[in-house]
Amino acid sequence: MAKDGDIIDFLLGSVFQLFGWILGGIFKLLLSLLGAIAGGIVSLFKKQ
C-alpha cells in the first residue's frame, strides 16, 4: 500500500499541479482575449 510521502503521492501531486498551471494559463489567456475583444468593440462604438 502507498504511504503518505510516497513517490506515488509525489508524482500525483506534480501531475495535478501541472494541470492546475495549464488550466490557469488557459483561463488567463481567455480572459485577456475577451478583454481585448470588448475593448475593441467599445472603441468602435466610441468612434461613431
Description:
- The chain has 1 helix and no strands.
- It has one helix spanning 7-47.
- Helices cover 85% and strands 0% of the residues.
- The relative contact order is 0.08.
Class inferred from helices and paired strands? mainly alpha
What order do the helices and strands follow?
H
Q: What integer value in Å does the Rg equal? A: 21 Å
How many DSSP H or I helices? 1
Total DSSP E strands: 0
Specify the oligomeric state. single chain
Pick out the low-confidence regions.
none
Form type: rod-shaped
Head-to-tail CA distance between termini:
69 Å
Helix content: over 70%
Proportion in β-strands = under 5%
Instruction: Look at the structure and give the mean pLDDT.
Output: 88
Q: Tell me about the biggest sheet?
A: none
Protein topology:
Elements: H1 7-47
